[in-house]
Write a structure and sequence with these properties.
The protein is an all-alpha fold. The protein is built from three helices and no strands. Helix 1 (11-24) crosses helix 2.
Length: 80
């Protein structure tokens, strides 16, 4: 197994990692391994934006008619 040393880690980041590890019932080292594993699980492929990902989910469901575009009229408040 490889080893990685991370230098100059902010104290706040370390505290958050420790808290997160406790929440998941892990050591901080195991929590960091899980985070790194999740970060590279897609082999570096970028995901699209929300619309692209949503379109992929609903591709091929064969709707009878297209879903109308949602337009919301917003009024901008005046701050006098």
């Amino acid at each position: 197994m490889a080893q990685v040393i991370v230098r100059n880690l902010d104290d706040a980041v370390k505290r958050k990692l420790q808290r997160r590890a406790v929440q998941h019932g892990h050591s901080m080292e195991e929590e960091i391994r899980d985070i790194l594993r999740d970060a590279v699980k897609d082999d570096g492929r970028r995901r699209g934006g929300f619309g692209t990902e949503a379109a992929k989910l609903f591709k091929g469901i064969e709707l009878d008619e297209p879903i109308p575009e949602l337009r919301i009229g917003l009024r901008i408040p005046k701050f006098d």
